[in-house]
Design goal:
Blueprint: H1 2-8, H2 15-31, H3 40-59
C-alpha cells in the first residue's frame, strides 16, 4: 500500500515517508534491490552498446 500511495500521491507522504520512498527508489535504481534486474548502470551500458553498434553500422553499411 505504501509504494502505491508513494507512486500515485507523493504529496500525501510526510517527511519520514518521503525519505523512505527516496531510499527505496535509490536502492532499486542504483543497487538493483527489490527485484530490479535493470540498474541504472546496466541501462547506461546497454545504451552505450546500442550507440556503438549503431555507429559501427553507419560506418560499414554492408555489415548491418
Amino acid at each position: 500500500m505504501f509504494r502505491w500511495r508513494a507512486r500515485n500521491w507523493p504529496e500525501s507522504l510526510d517527511a519520514k515517508e518521503q525519505e523512505r520512498w527516496r531510499h527505496f527508489c535509490e536502492a532499486r535504481l542504483l543497487e538493483g534491490q527489490f527485484g530490479n534486474a535493470l540498474t541504472l548502470a546496466r541501462y547506461k551500458q546497454i545504451l552505450e552498446e546500442l550507440i556503438s553498434g549503431s555507429a559501427a553500422a553507419r560506418a560499414d553499411p554492408a555489415a548491418g
